[in-house]
Amino acid sequence: MKNFKIDIVSDVMCPWCVVGYKNLETALEQLKDEMSADITWHPFELNPDMPIEGQDLNEHLMQKYNLSEEQGDENRKNMFEAGQRAGFTFNFDGKRIMINSFDLHRLLMWAREEGKQTKLKLAFFEAHFTDLKYLNQEEALLDVVEKVGLDKETARGILHSDKYVQDVRQEQDNFKQMGITSVPTFIINDKYALTGGQPSDSFIQALKQISEEEAKQDA
Protein backbone atom coordinates (compact mmCIF):
# COMPACT_ATOMS: atom_id res chain seq x y z
CA MET A 1 0.00 0.00 0.00
CA LYS A 2 1.48 3.32 -1.10
CA ASN A 3 0.99 6.24 1.28
CA PHE A 4 1.32 9.79 0.00
CA LYS A 5 2.08 12.98 1.88
CA ILE A 6 -0.17 15.67 0.40
CA ASP A 7 0.14 19.32 1.44
CA ILE A 8 -2.65 21.61 0.23
CA VAL A 9 -2.04 25.36 0.07
CA SER A 10 -5.49 26.88 0.15
CA ASP A 11 -7.84 29.64 1.26
CA VAL A 12 -11.35 29.02 2.61
CA MET A 13 -12.47 31.92 0.39
CA CYS A 14 -11.39 30.04 -2.76
CA PRO A 15 -14.19 28.01 -4.40
CA TRP A 16 -11.77 26.04 -6.58
CA CYS A 17 -10.01 24.87 -3.41
CA VAL A 18 -13.06 22.92 -2.28
CA VAL A 19 -13.76 21.64 -5.83
CA GLY A 20 -10.15 20.44 -6.13
CA TYR A 21 -10.18 18.80 -2.72
CA LYS A 22 -13.49 16.99 -3.31
CA ASN A 23 -12.09 15.64 -6.60
CA LEU A 24 -8.91 14.52 -4.81
CA GLU A 25 -11.12 12.79 -2.24
CA THR A 26 -12.95 10.95 -5.05
CA ALA A 27 -9.63 9.92 -6.60
CA LEU A 28 -8.31 8.57 -3.29
CA GLU A 29 -11.57 6.66 -2.74
CA GLN A 30 -11.20 5.02 -6.16
CA LEU A 31 -7.56 4.15 -5.44
CA LYS A 32 -8.11 3.06 -1.83
CA ASP A 33 -6.95 -0.54 -2.47
CA GLU A 34 -3.61 0.72 -3.81
CA MET A 35 -2.84 3.94 -1.97
CA SER A 36 -3.75 6.33 0.86
CA ALA A 37 -2.75 9.87 1.83
CA ASP A 38 -1.92 12.00 4.85
CA ILE A 39 -3.30 15.47 4.13
CA THR A 40 -2.20 18.76 5.70
CA TRP A 41 -3.73 22.16 4.87
CA HIS A 42 -1.59 25.30 4.69
CA PRO A 43 -2.61 28.97 4.72
CA PHE A 44 -2.97 31.34 1.79
CA GLU A 45 -4.90 34.64 1.85
CA LEU A 46 -6.57 35.69 -1.38
CA ASN A 47 -7.31 39.10 0.14
CA PRO A 48 -4.90 39.89 2.98
CA ASP A 49 -5.87 43.58 2.92
CA MET A 50 -9.62 42.97 3.18
CA PRO A 51 -11.11 44.90 6.16
CA ILE A 52 -12.80 42.89 8.92
CA GLU A 53 -16.34 43.79 7.75
CA GLY A 54 -15.66 42.13 4.37
CA GLN A 55 -17.19 43.10 1.02
CA ASP A 56 -20.13 41.98 -1.10
CA LEU A 57 -18.70 39.12 -3.17
CA ASN A 58 -20.17 40.06 -6.55
CA GLU A 59 -18.97 43.64 -6.10
CA HIS A 60 -15.53 42.38 -5.03
CA LEU A 61 -15.13 40.09 -8.06
CA MET A 62 -16.27 42.76 -10.49
CA GLN A 63 -13.73 45.21 -9.03
CA LYS A 64 -10.84 42.75 -8.74
CA TYR A 65 -11.21 41.08 -12.14
CA ASN A 66 -13.11 43.80 -14.06
CA LEU A 67 -15.97 41.38 -14.71
CA SER A 68 -19.17 42.48 -16.39
CA GLU A 69 -22.49 41.32 -14.96
CA GLU A 70 -22.79 38.75 -17.78
CA GLN A 71 -19.29 37.39 -17.08
CA GLY A 72 -20.17 37.19 -13.39
CA ASP A 73 -23.30 35.18 -14.19
CA GLU A 74 -21.30 32.84 -16.46
CA ASN A 75 -18.67 32.39 -13.72
CA ARG A 76 -21.31 31.45 -11.17
CA LYS A 77 -22.91 28.97 -13.59
CA ASN A 78 -19.55 27.29 -14.29
CA MET A 79 -18.73 27.16 -10.60
CA PHE A 80 -22.10 25.71 -9.65
CA GLU A 81 -21.70 22.97 -12.27
CA ALA A 82 -18.12 22.20 -11.21
CA GLY A 83 -19.36 21.94 -7.61
CA GLN A 84 -22.18 19.60 -8.61
CA ARG A 85 -19.73 17.32 -10.45
CA ALA A 86 -17.45 17.29 -7.40
CA GLY A 87 -20.29 16.66 -4.94
CA PHE A 88 -20.36 20.13 -3.38
CA THR A 89 -23.18 22.70 -3.40
CA PHE A 90 -22.49 26.37 -4.10
CA ASN A 91 -25.38 28.59 -3.04
CA PHE A 92 -25.78 31.76 -5.10
CA ASP A 93 -29.25 32.69 -3.84
CA GLY A 94 -28.43 34.91 -0.87
CA LYS A 95 -25.99 37.74 -0.09
CA ARG A 96 -22.44 36.45 -0.15
CA ILE A 97 -19.40 38.25 1.17
CA MET A 98 -15.63 38.01 0.75
CA ILE A 99 -13.73 38.27 4.03
CA ASN A 100 -10.18 38.28 5.31
CA SER A 101 -9.46 34.66 6.29
CA PHE A 102 -6.45 35.11 8.60
CA ASP A 103 -8.31 34.08 11.78
CA LEU A 104 -9.68 31.00 10.01
CA HIS A 105 -6.11 29.95 9.22
CA ARG A 106 -5.16 30.37 12.88
CA LEU A 107 -8.01 28.08 13.92
CA LEU A 108 -7.04 25.57 11.22
CA MET A 109 -3.48 25.53 12.57
CA TRP A 110 -4.89 24.65 16.00
CA ALA A 111 -7.27 22.05 14.50
CA ARG A 112 -4.24 20.38 12.88
CA GLU A 113 -2.81 19.77 16.35
CA GLU A 114 -6.18 18.38 17.46
CA GLY A 115 -6.39 15.96 14.52
CA LYS A 116 -9.48 17.68 13.06
CA GLN A 117 -7.99 19.97 10.44
CA THR A 118 -9.65 18.53 7.32
CA LYS A 119 -12.95 18.26 9.17
CA LEU A 120 -12.81 21.94 10.16
CA LYS A 121 -11.65 23.07 6.70
CA LEU A 122 -14.59 21.31 5.02
CA ALA A 123 -16.99 22.72 7.62
CA PHE A 124 -15.66 26.23 6.86
CA PHE A 125 -16.14 25.67 3.11
CA GLU A 126 -19.71 24.51 3.67
CA ALA A 127 -20.53 27.36 6.08
CA HIS A 128 -19.13 29.96 3.67
CA PHE A 129 -20.25 28.67 0.26
CA THR A 130 -23.39 26.61 1.01
CA ASP A 131 -24.88 28.06 4.19
CA LEU A 132 -23.72 31.66 3.47
CA LYS A 133 -22.51 32.17 7.06
CA TYR A 134 -20.49 35.31 7.71
CA LEU A 135 -17.30 33.84 9.12
CA ASN A 136 -16.02 37.30 10.09
CA GLN A 137 -18.63 37.21 12.89
CA GLU A 138 -17.19 35.52 15.97
CA GLU A 139 -20.23 33.53 17.07
CA ALA A 140 -20.91 32.21 13.56
CA LEU A 141 -17.27 31.14 13.32
CA LEU A 142 -17.27 29.50 16.75
CA ASP A 143 -20.48 27.61 15.96
CA VAL A 144 -18.69 25.94 13.05
CA VAL A 145 -15.75 25.06 15.30
CA GLU A 146 -18.08 23.51 17.86
CA LYS A 147 -19.95 21.58 15.17
CA VAL A 148 -16.85 19.53 14.32
CA GLY A 149 -16.21 18.63 17.96
CA LEU A 150 -13.58 21.25 18.86
CA ASP A 151 -13.79 23.26 22.06
CA LYS A 152 -15.57 26.57 21.48
CA GLU A 153 -14.01 28.44 24.40
CA THR A 154 -10.47 27.35 23.47
CA ALA A 155 -11.16 28.68 19.98
CA ARG A 156 -12.49 31.95 21.41
CA GLY A 157 -9.29 32.26 23.45
CA ILE A 158 -7.21 31.82 20.29
CA LEU A 159 -9.20 34.53 18.46
CA HIS A 160 -8.63 36.96 21.34
CA SER A 161 -4.89 36.30 21.50
CA ASP A 162 -1.96 36.34 19.08
CA LYS A 163 -1.68 32.54 19.18
CA TYR A 164 -0.70 30.98 15.82
CA VAL A 165 -0.18 34.42 14.25
CA GLN A 166 3.53 33.79 13.69
CA ASP A 167 2.93 30.19 12.61
CA VAL A 168 0.49 31.26 9.89
CA ARG A 169 2.78 34.08 8.70
CA GLN A 170 5.77 31.70 8.64
CA GLU A 171 3.96 29.10 6.54
CA GLN A 172 2.65 31.76 4.16
CA ASP A 173 6.20 33.10 3.70
CA ASN A 174 7.62 29.61 3.17
CA PHE A 175 5.19 28.80 0.38
CA LYS A 176 5.62 32.25 -1.18
CA GLN A 177 9.38 31.62 -1.31
CA MET A 178 8.66 28.30 -3.02
CA GLY A 179 6.94 30.31 -5.76
CA ILE A 180 3.34 29.45 -4.91
CA THR A 181 1.16 32.37 -5.97
CA SER A 182 -2.21 30.70 -6.67
CA VAL A 183 -4.50 28.25 -4.93
CA PRO A 184 -5.27 25.47 -4.61
CA THR A 185 -1.79 24.00 -4.92
CA PHE A 186 -1.43 20.30 -4.08
CA ILE A 187 2.13 19.30 -3.19
CA ILE A 188 2.69 15.54 -3.27
CA ASN A 189 5.59 13.98 -1.35
CA ASP A 190 7.34 17.38 -1.20
CA LYS A 191 8.28 17.07 -4.89
CA TYR A 192 5.32 17.19 -7.26
CA ALA A 193 2.72 19.96 -7.56
CA LEU A 194 -0.73 20.17 -9.12
CA THR A 195 -2.64 23.44 -9.21
CA GLY A 196 -6.28 24.42 -9.61
CA GLY A 197 -9.59 22.60 -9.26
CA GLN A 198 -8.40 19.50 -11.12
CA PRO A 199 -10.93 16.77 -12.03
CA SER A 200 -10.63 13.45 -10.18
CA ASP A 201 -9.21 11.71 -13.28
CA SER A 202 -6.24 14.10 -13.25
CA PHE A 203 -5.50 13.23 -9.63
CA ILE A 204 -5.79 9.50 -10.36
CA GLN A 205 -3.40 9.81 -13.29
CA ALA A 206 -0.91 11.95 -11.30
CA LEU A 207 -0.91 9.69 -8.23
CA LYS A 208 -0.41 6.56 -10.33
CA GLN A 209 2.39 8.20 -12.27
CA ILE A 210 4.15 9.42 -9.11
CA SER A 211 3.76 5.98 -7.56
CA GLU A 212 5.39 4.35 -10.60
CA GLU A 213 8.23 6.92 -10.70
CA GLU A 214 9.01 6.48 -7.01
CA ALA A 215 8.87 2.68 -7.31
CA LYS A 216 11.51 2.89 -10.07
CA GLN A 217 13.69 5.19 -7.95
CA ASP A 218 13.45 2.77 -5.02
CA ALA A 219 14.22 -0.27 -7.16
Order of helices and strands: EHEEHHEHHHHHEEH
Query: In the CATH hierarchy, what is the class?
Result: Alpha Beta
Shape: globular
Structural class: alpha+beta
**How many strands, what sense, and barrel or not for the largest sheet?**
4 strands, mixed
Rounded average pLDDT: 95
CATH topology: Glutaredoxin
Number of spatially distinct domains: 1
Q: By CATH's scheme, which homologous superfamily applies?
A: Glutaredoxin
| Beta fraction | 5-15%
Distance between the termini: 16 Å
Counting DSSP H or I runs of 4 or more residues, the number of helices is 9
| CA gyration radius, whole angstroms | 18 Å
Query: Oligomeric state of the chains?
Result: single chain
CATH architecture assignment: 3-Layer(aba) Sandwich
Low-confidence stretches: none
Q: Strand order across the biggest sheet?
A: 2-1-5-6
Helix content: 40-55%
Number of strands: 6
Pfam families: DSBA (PF01323)
GO molecular function: oxidoreductase activity
Protein name: DsbA family oxidoreductase
Domain DSBA-like thioredoxin: 6-207
Descriptive notes:
- The protein has a single domain, classed as 3-Layer(aba) Sandwich (Glutaredoxin), CATH 3.40.30.10.
- Helix content is 54%, strand content 14%.
- The chain contains nine helices and six strands.
